[in-house]
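look at this:
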Amino acid sequence: MNSRDRVSGAFNRTGFDRIPVKHEGTPEINQLIMNHFGLTNMEQLLRVIGDDFRYAEPVYVGPELRKFPDGSIEGYWGERYKYAEFEGGKYLEACYLPFSNIHEISALDRSHFPTADWFDYSTIRQQCLEISDQGYAVCFGTAGDMDFINSIARARGTEQVLIDLITDDPVYMEIMEARFNFYYHMHERVLHAAGGLIDFTHIGEDLGTQYSQVIGFDVFDKHFAPKFRKYFDMVHSYGARTMMHICGCARAFLPRLINLGLDVYDVVQPTNPDMDIAVLKHEFGDNLTFCGSVCVQSTLAFGSAGDVAKEVERRKQLFPKGGLFLGPSHAIQVGTPIENIIALYKTAGSLAEEIDEAILSATSGKDTGEINMSKLF
């Protein structure tokens, strides 16, 4: 059974040879794994840990994204990012918010609104064919696609965005509409170019805090639901399935998201009893596939390898025929012991038993030394 068959078996609840795996780690963690196994690129890493998913990407051909003297990097919307360093690593944080003090539509600079025309889609089908021929499930998109709260906040400010959603601020609404149209049309053009070869599309929206929801149902139903329904319907019309990255305690929104057309709930952050994977499976497992769920804030970071193995075994028992793509509850963070990461994938049954020539000859153009900027835009 290859990865694509394994993922399909898990999604359709028809069984598999082992539970499917989907990895996410910070650049520092990915480098840690590569150093441990003597690897040189991300594709080799994914093969060693047994990741069952691969992503197709259009080629960016839009305006040059500028780099500034202070070291900051421009995003699609004119915002800028700069590395904030901490012990053991670094992370890009927004340092210039172009829409932060805009309170009148007439003052809104639309010159930095991106369009789907900023990408070349001519290689998409070939990428999908190659991924399929290698036996992997084919995905497109990132956790930063759509992402109306978190990503718009990087250009406007978190507090302002939350106020905007309550007051129906016209400036925010125009930015939100532009962001939706950008990603909707980009995803549609990728799906069209792929000709039915995309298995899952990936978007994101952080709807939860550690213990509750970020916004009320009235705000969600008014501003988010119509957009998600339109997007999910479009994706399904091309025969693909929808995956949505949602940080925090998002349980309250799951009935609505299922009704709107969500197929896969990505990362699953088990920060309180209501978010326990067994509870979620009992309540929503007939209508939703889960992805992730092994906690990067507790078990992976601070538990023992035995604790990690116990959590993985529990999930294997809960989902013997499917319903879960196993992985961390977010990017595995700096400070996580390599022994725990190995335990995660070894217990899942996905870790390569030996590093053979097929793995070492694998190449990838993706550099793990930098943050994937597309997840921010």
DSSP finds 14 helices and twelve strands in the chain. Residues 170-194 form the longest helix (25 residues). The first strand starts at residue 53 and ends at 55.
